[in-house]
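Lab meeting, item 3. Inverse folding demo.
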């Protein structure tokens, strides 16, 4: 299934190892917020240190526009990582060029160096050969452990492998194993839960899963476009008019696999304090909008989930950010947590929702990648993974 070399397949002793990590974490006033992504990379970093490598880490952070921007410096990450490793983390103020080269050159086995934000160079996202070559010149081996960016062919994820032998880190391996296996060799029944705002982001995923899954449970704003395709009046609900035809096609080819909500929780405005009413599925009254799935839908979905062998979930069932419209998402999270299925959850919003619901510890695998996990569900090959050496 996972046929790429990993760090256990190579000798790293005495070698300089460039590791692409996903340290794209929130930072504010010089401090790191949620550090889940940093913690997720620790097993790889620790393994490399214990096996005598000199570890050079690089990552992007945020979306700097075309050049260095102090708002997106990796410096707070260096400090935070140092605390987690309980060891010094050296820092270079650029990821390529003389300062990075000097810092990498003097780095010894067992030491860690973090390079400044790779996206301070616009060449990063262009997968520029020259930037890739300069990055590669810092080390002898490349390790990709950045699952969250593995769906992008950038200089630090793909280009660099043209100049250095590339292998996978533990996090990348784990993510691909869980997500890849869930889709390619699921324990059946295989149930996919898809929600979130828009259907247009997930058309490829629905198509792929219609071929692979036994049931697809739809919720969130994207259900509205299906309802519109069935001729229901959606009033002020979020609907993607440009996707109505596609929704019709998907329904026609669904073979009974697509499940839509049977009731709805309506709000009179898009607001945490909105007035609320629950109704069976039907025309939405003027002045109202669907903001969550209703209790009958939760019960019906929970029944399907309770019999599942594998569950994959991407996208919340409603506007869970407003507590009174979070019940649908929490109810489904509870059902997934209580089922004995292998459960894999991906996507920033869905992960936040499941964490808020208090059920996260009962999920088999929570992915660190949003876009990358969606592309895996879509059955696509991630360029950052394809570029690594085969076993
Ligand atoms: P996505 O990034 O596509 O997974 O969408 C996540 C967002 O979808 C969340 O921030 C939710 O608030 C939003 N969402 C879920 N259900 C609805 C709905 N019925 N109407 C509007 N937005 C929704």
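The presenter then showed the designed sequence:
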């Amino acid at each position: 299934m996972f046929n790429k070399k990993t760090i256990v397949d190579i000798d790293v002793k005495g070698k300089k190892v460039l590791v692409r990590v996903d340290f794209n974490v929130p930072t504010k006033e010089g401090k790191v917020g949620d550090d889940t992504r940093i913690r997720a990379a620790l097993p790889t970093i620790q393994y490399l240190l214990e096996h005598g490598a000199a570890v050079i880490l690089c990552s992007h952070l945020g979306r700097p526009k075309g050049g260095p921007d102090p708002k997106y410096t990796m410096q707070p990450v260096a400090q935070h990582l140092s605390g987690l490793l309980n060891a010094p983390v050296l820092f270079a103020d650029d990821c390529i060029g003389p300062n990075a080269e000097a810092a990498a050159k003097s780095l010894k086995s067992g030491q860690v160096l973090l390079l400044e934000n790779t996206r301070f160079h616009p060449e990063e996202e262009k997968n520029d050969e020259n930037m890739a070559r300069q990055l590669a010149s810092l080390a002898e081996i490349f390790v990709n452990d950045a699952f969250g960016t593995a769906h992008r062919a950038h200089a630090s994820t793909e280009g660099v492998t043209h100049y250095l032998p590339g292998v996978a880190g533990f996090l990348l391996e784990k993510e691909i194993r869980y997500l890849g296996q869930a889709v390619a060799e699921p324990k059946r029944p295989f149930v996919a839960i898809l929600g979130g705002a828009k259907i247009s982001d997930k058309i490829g995923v629905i198509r792929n899963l219609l071929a692979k899954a036994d049931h697809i449970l739809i919720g969130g704003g994207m259900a509205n476009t299906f309802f519109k395709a069935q001729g229901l009046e959606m009033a002020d609900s979020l609907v993607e008019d440009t996707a109505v035809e596609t929704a019709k096609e998907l329904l026609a080819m669904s073979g009974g696999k697509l499940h839509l909500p049977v009731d709805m929780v309506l709000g009179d405005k898009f607001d945490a304090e909105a007035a609320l009413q629950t109704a069976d599925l039907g025309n939405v009254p003027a002045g109202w909008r669907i903001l969550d799935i209703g209790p009958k839908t939760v019960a019906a979905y929970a029944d399907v989930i309770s019999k599942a062998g594998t569950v994959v979930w991407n996208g919340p069932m409603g506007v869970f950010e407003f507590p009174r419209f979070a019940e649908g998402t929490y109810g489904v999270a509870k059902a997934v947590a209580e089922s004995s299925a292998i459960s894999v959850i991906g996507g920033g919003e869905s992960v936040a929702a499941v964490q808020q619901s208090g059920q996260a510890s009962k999920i088999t695998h929570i992915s660190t990648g949003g876009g990358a996990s969606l592309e895996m569900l879509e059955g696509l090959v991630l360029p950052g993974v394809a570029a690594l050496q085969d076993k």
